Amino acid sequence: MKYQLLATDLDGTLLNGQKEIDVGTIAAIHEYRKRGGRVVICSGRSPLSTKWIAHTIGLQNEPIIAYNGAVLIDEKGEISEQSVFQSDPLLSFWELCEAEGIYAHFYEGDTLLVPRVNKWNEDWIENNIPALEKTGAERQNCQSFREKCQVKVVGDFYRYIKEKVPNITKIAVFDDENKLADFTQRLKEQVVDMEISSSFNFVNLEITPGGVTKASALVKLTEQLEIPLSQTAAIGDNFNDALMLSMAGLGIAMGNAPEEVRQLADQVTGNNNEAGVAQAIHRYLLDV
């Protein structure tokens, strides 16, 4: 088998627009594994969310990359590596958010820290642990996973960071006034030790500690598994996947990816609503 490992993104890639995974995609994944391939979920989602999805589609015994590379989970489901923000960059970041009137929330383990309840966090638990009913998940199991994560309102982030020194692995920033492009520039100028990626047209930002990306985590994982990068395939749809796609032996962009991301990939498959991952597995991984 030319490509021994497939790293796959979740949202916009493995998950369709209804946050479900096509039955044909699951079958293709297991056919690839049956032939000796490894499949690694590589997502911006939380450790619990990625484990829930892996559990539902039968990938319990595969490693996982969560929070855009800040958390590595081993085959036993345990966190093997974790990268967290230092306090000083966090405080500088929060001060800039306050000055600019920008909303951000923070991920501490499987807890979401928010300054207040609003449209960007009120349904987070349900979005973090999607029902996956059409994918084959059992409602009782879904509820069990949802009970393990929480949204915590922190009225004074500055004090919380100072006193608690939390292990924050990821930050998400949201805005609906088209201010994030300018905010990103100021963030790069004023706050160091942060990796910033955006989704379509700066609708939101995803931020991890400096040097931490899906690509850097995939390098670590392939070294641990003793699989050469040249024998690794990666598939994704967004800017936080771009470096991973260009670095892998075979980078596959989803059909719904932005043009800039598609240009960085070696191949382009169908979109996430037409089982693009299954198409890619059959076309590029099973037939070579």
Salient structural properties:
alpha/beta, globular, Rossmann fold, 11 helices, 35% helix, 288 residues
Give the % helix.
25-40%
For the CA atoms, what is the radius of gyration? 18 Å
Estimated share of beta-strand residues:
15-25%
Give the CATH H-level superfamily of the domain at 5-83 and 212-285.
HAD superfamily/HAD-like
Output mean pLDDT.
Answer: 95
Q: Strand count, sense and closure of the main sheet?
A: 8 strands, mixed
Structural class: alpha/beta
Task: Give the low-pLDDT segments.
Answer: none
| CATH architecture assignment name of the domain at 5-83 and 212-285 | 3-Layer(aba) Sandwich
CATH classification, class level of the domain at 5-83 and 212-285: Alpha Beta
Our count of helices gives: 11
Give me the strand/helix succession.
Answer: EHEHEEEHEEHHEHEHEEHEHEHEH
**Total beta strands:** 14
Reported by name, the CATH topology of the domain at 5-83 and 212-285 is Rossmann fold
Distance between the termini: 7 Å
Strand ordering within the main sheet = 5-4-3-2-1-12-13-14
Shape: globular
Question: What would you say this structure looks like, in words?
Answer:
The chain has 11 helices and 14 strands. It has 288 residues and is of the alpha/beta class. Helix 1 (23-34) runs parallel beside helix 11 and helix 3 (87-100) packs antiparallel against helix 6 (157-164). The chain is 35% helix and 22% strand. It starts with a strand and ends with a helix. An 8-stranded mixed sheet has the order 5-4-3-2-1-12-13-14, sandwiched between helices. It has a domain at 5-83 and 212-285: 3-Layer(aba) Sandwich (Rossmann fold).
